[in-house]
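User: Let's play a game. I give you a shape written as tokens, and you guess the letters that built it. Ready? Here's round one.
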């Protein structure tokens, strides 16, 4: 039988130290305590722990010094930092220093137990009396060169490409997945940001929990608070039953906020509070309830520029951008094209129930290699799917590849080397979205008239395709 996890609690307040110790002992953990940095360092030099819990401010320095020392020595202990109430800067600094999670004072014991359990869920087993600085970190496992056999390996294998940038993406996903630190995935439209978010979830200790993806630009502004935080029965006319929001649905798992740059400013403030306090209040509820989600967000916008222009809150950007993952555009990794093409052809063949995966000829590959792909991998998939539909057969030649004519314009997005365009910054020629959704009957009639062609229906409504899909799901028309 494995020994119980061993924890080190560091706090200069005797009452709090005793409270934490008794709470952990009741659960069955072994607990050592220390009152300051010097005592904590002595404990760490003599013993390996599964988890360090430290107050931010100690009589002889900051608890972050212990977190950084463990990181520098490649010690396997995870750490939780306790910060003063509302001290967002300290919380972000702790996560960037390598802490698994943070708690704010006064500490809620239910959240305390949950944070400890999450940190210990995949902790490395302890070994007796190692010296500080001689404990190797677990190596990153190669995911692309093995047959997927676990959800994590399968999710990593979906991030296709052997180029150096994509290998770095996979390695970074595995490194940052095992903490609670928020991750901001940056990249142009069509680069595969949601695939990366799903891989982060699959490689984390929350893999058994739900993964909830939200397109922040597809929800009508009048409904966005209810969708995020839930609704209590009777909160407004038509609220005939309690309905959970995204935060409640994602409890114990990952909440993926796609296109976070499209979130209205008023909702940005409410989202910031929910992330900082880890509590949400459903519409019509008299009290807040705790939440347990990891936030992963994504955008094709330059959020730093949006902050400067006053379109995105600086404090929310600071909170979301604890760890940044940049996904390179397809034009920066053309050597991945053959592997991407093969993966897409196989996926489309299986989806359509075809007996044989078509082969792409050398001249067709040459045509695709010369194309800049402003729509990235999503555009490549559309081109290949069209080619397979119009040119069935064992081989797809150059005549099957129909590429759109490109008009001179700046490529999208500026961040970490990306250029930008007006469209990427939110200026669009698309017609404005109508303020109200049509009735269920009207939307169903439109879809039937268009033989359930969603793209055509969205154009008729003047909507984005994402918004149409939102209302199809919301009204039960799937």
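Assistant: Ready! My guess for every position:
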């Amino acid at each position: 039988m494995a020994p119980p996890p061993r924890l080190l609690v560091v706090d200069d307040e005797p009452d709090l130290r005793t409270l934490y110790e008794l709470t952990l002992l009741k659960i069955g953990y072994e607990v050592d305590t220390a009152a300051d940095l010097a005592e904590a360092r002595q404990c760490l030099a003599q013993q390996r722990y599964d988890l360090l819990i430290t107050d931010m401010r100690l009589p002889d320095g900051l608890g972050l010094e212990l977190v950084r020392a463990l990181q520098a020595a490649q010690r396997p202990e995870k750490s939780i930092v306790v910060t003063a109430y509302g001290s967002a800067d300290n919380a972000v600094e702790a996560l960037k220093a390598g802490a698994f999670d943070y708690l704010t004072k006064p500490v809620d014991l239910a959240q305390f137990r949950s944070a400890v359990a999450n940190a210990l869920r995949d902790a490395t087993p302890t070994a007796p009396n190692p010296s500080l600085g001689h404990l190797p970190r677990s190596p990153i496992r190669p995911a692309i060169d093995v047959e997927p056999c676990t959800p994590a390996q399968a999710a990593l294998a979906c991030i296709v490409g052997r180029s150096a940038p994509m290998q770095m993406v996979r390695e970074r996903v595995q490194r940052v997945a095992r903490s609670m630190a928020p991750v901001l995935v940056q990249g142009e439209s069509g680069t595969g940001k949601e695939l990366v978010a799903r891989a982060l979830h699959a490689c984390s200790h929350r893999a058994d929990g739900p993964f909830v993806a939200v397109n922040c630009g597809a929800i009508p502004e009048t409904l966005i608070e209810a969708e995020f935080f839930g609704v209590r029965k009777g909160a407004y006319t038509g609220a005939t039953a309690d309905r959970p929001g995204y935060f409640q649905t994602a409890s114990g798992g990952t909440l993926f906020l796609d296109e976070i740059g499209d979130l209205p400013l008023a909702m940005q403030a409410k989202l910031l509070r929910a992330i900082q306090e880890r509590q949400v209040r459903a519409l019509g509820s008299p009290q807040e309830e705790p939440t347990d989600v990891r936030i992963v967000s994504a955008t094709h916008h330059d959020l730093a520029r949006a902050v400067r222009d006053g379109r995105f809150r600086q404090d929310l950007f600071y909170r979301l951008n604890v760890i940044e993952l940049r996904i390179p555009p397809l034009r920066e990794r053309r050597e991945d094209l053959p592997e991407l093409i093969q993966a897409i052809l196989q996926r489309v063949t299986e989806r359509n129930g075809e007996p044989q995966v078509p082969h792409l000829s050398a001249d067709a590959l040459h045509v695709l290699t010369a194309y800049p792909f402003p729509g990235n991998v999503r555009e490549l998939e559309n081109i290949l799917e069209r080619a397979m539909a119009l040119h069935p057969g064992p081989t797809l030649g150059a005549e099957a590849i129909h590429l759109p004519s490109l008009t001179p314009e700046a490529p999208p997005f500026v961040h970490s080397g990306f250029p930008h365009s007006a469209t990427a910054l939110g200026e669009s020629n698309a017609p404005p979205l109508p303020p109200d959704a049509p009735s269920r009957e009207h939307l169903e009639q439109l879809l039937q008239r268009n033989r359930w062609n969603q793209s055509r229906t969205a154009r008729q409504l003047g909507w984005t395709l994402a918004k149409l899909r939102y209302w199809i799901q919301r009204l039960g028309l799937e």
